[in-house]
Write a structure and sequence with these properties.
The complex is a heterodimer. By secondary structure, chain A is of the alpha/beta class. Chain A is built from 4 helices and 5 strands, in the order βαββαββαα. Helix content of chain A is 37%, strand content 28%. Chain A has a 5-stranded mixed beta sheet. In chain A, helix 1 links the parallel strand 1 and strand 2. The longest helix of chain A is centred in the first third of the chain and has 16 residues. The mean pLDDT of chain A is 91. Classes of the chains: A alpha/beta, B mainly alpha. Chains A and B meet through helix 3 of A and helix 1 of B.
């Protein structure tokens, strides 16, 4: 299954990127195809294209702040969780998707 | 209700995330200019130092932009693009009437929710395109401006003056209590919302000219990963090879003031790690407070040493906090191991 994700924390220098790495790693072991966009202090990196988003069955927002350019995700199913959850228990996020 | 609080927190943190670089830029430029200007009994004298005056002015400009950015992006998080105008205006007026960050936060929230309400007004199809670029910004901007200037700005400014006075006049005893709480909060969730609340309180006080709150936070910020790193070095047998590797990474992160370096440890063993790092951070914050450490940058750890007042006390605070953290966790871990070993022996 293809999924896309956005991670963002208030300071945008550590948590944002740690969460992205966690999601990528766990997705791989569970057999998901994932692309993670980070919205940190440097702005949007590894930006999700229109194509990425339209191909994805679901978008994960692991964020503590507002998602930038949220209108890109109109029409896609989104689940939003606190960023901490992607760090502490990323498996539960994917479990939610599979349900 | 929890949903509302959750979204409120998200809006506030969004504003904070855009405001932090402005505090960093303003705080450090101002500190730099003042540090090198000749000191007189009435304060630093810039009359003979035009270049330093230039640096000072740029720093002050970054500071005065910080409130509009804070309010603007709180509003943006709630109401999207149309909310930027009332948000920025509200933050600007908060600066004008000296209502500070408290005024800016209120202005931002108000601006965002007003825009959300205005968006709900049903309008004919022909008018709809001009709503977000014309009607909503003008109406909400005028409303927020009037409210800030005529209604809530001045009372909040008075409140800020009083709160600042209370913080400045705070005795050593209350200062220690405040530092204990802030230090514990910094360590508790290692960069999460509780950490950010303490951090932003310190950062906002920089702008109000009180550097000691941030000083206490800054000392506490570095010690969790530094302490965990030191613990893995001191008693190698208590830690797995992965943990020792994470310990080295933790030391690197601690040195540059990233509390998150302690997360791998806290995630693996929260019951022992979180109390240990909270105690260490609280100790560091108290020593910094007692030693009158002031931090001019919204960041912590040894890396900010050059923008800190009373550097020796700052280093002492960090070193002591680190040792306390490492000592506590190794003690708890060794005890835990002994308990499990005796249990295993009994089972065998």
């Amino acid at each position: 299954m293809k999924v896309v994700a956005v991670t963002a924390c208030p300071t945008g220098i550590a948590h944002t990127y740690m969460a992205a790495a966690r999601l990528e790693k766990v997705a791989k072991t569970l057999g998901f195809e994932i692309k993670v966009e980070t919205q940190g202090a440097m702005g949007i990196e590894n930006k999700l294209t229109e194509h990425d988003i339209s191909q994805a069955e679901i978008a994960i927002f692991a964020v503590d702040i507002a998602v930038e350019e949220r209108e890109r995700f109109n029409g896609v199913k989104v689940i939003q969780v606190p960023l901490q959850e992607a760090l502490k228990d990323p498996h539960s996020i994917f479990a939610k998707i599979q349900r | 209700m929890p949903e509302l609080l959750k979204s409120l927190r998200q809006h506030l943190l969004t504003g904070v995330s855009y405001a932090i670089p402005f505090i960093a830029c303003g705080g450090i430029l101002i500190a730099f200019a003042i540090a090198f200007a000749p000191m007189t009994p009435t304060g630093p004298d810039f009359s003979q130092a035009p270049r330093l005056k230039l640096v000072l002015d740029i720093g002050l400009a970054a500071f005065s932009l910080m409130l509009p950015v804070l309010a603007g992006y709180i509003a943006y998080s709630i109401g999207g693009k149309p909310a930027l105008v009332p948000g920025f205006l509200g933050g600007y007026f908060s600066d004008q009437v000296k209502a500070g960050f408290l005024g800016a936060i209120l202005a931002g929230l108000l601006a965002g929710y007003v825009v959300e309400l205005l968006k709900k007004i049903p309008v004919s199809r022909h008018l709809r395109p001009i709503m977000p670029i014309l009607v909503i910004p003008i109406l909400s901007g005028a409303l927020i401006g009037a409210v800030m200037l005529k209604l809530i700005g001045v009372p909040i400014a008075l409140l800020m003056v009083r709160a600042n006075g209370a913080l400045q006049a705070m005795g050593t005893g209350n200062g220690i209590v405040l530092a204990l709480v802030l230090g514990g909060m910094i360590a508790f969730d290692m960069g999460g919302p509780i950490n950010k609340a303490a951090f932003f309180f310190g950062a906002a006080m920089i702008r109000e000219g009180n550097y000691q709150i941030m000083g206490a936070c800054a000392a506490a910020i570095g010690t969790p990963p530094l302490g965990m790193g030191l613990a893995t070095l001191l008693q190698k047998r208590l830690w797995s090879s992965e943990e020792r590797e994470a310990g080295l990474a933790g030391i690197a992160m601690g040195l540059i003031g990233i509390t998150e370096g302690a997360i791998p440890f806290a995630a693996a063993d929260p019951i022992r790690v979180i109390p240990s790092i909270m105690v260490g951070s609280a100790v560091a914050a108290v020593i910094a407070m007692v030693g009158k450490v002031g931090d001019h940058a919204p960041h912590g750890g040894p890396i900010v040493l050059f923008v800190v007042d009373h550097r020796l006390a700052y280093l002492l605070a960090i070193v002591t906090g680190t040792i306390v953290t490492a000592g506590s966790i190794n003690l708890l871990k060794a005890r835990g191991r002994r308990l499990t070993e005796t249990k295993e022996e009994k089972a065998a």
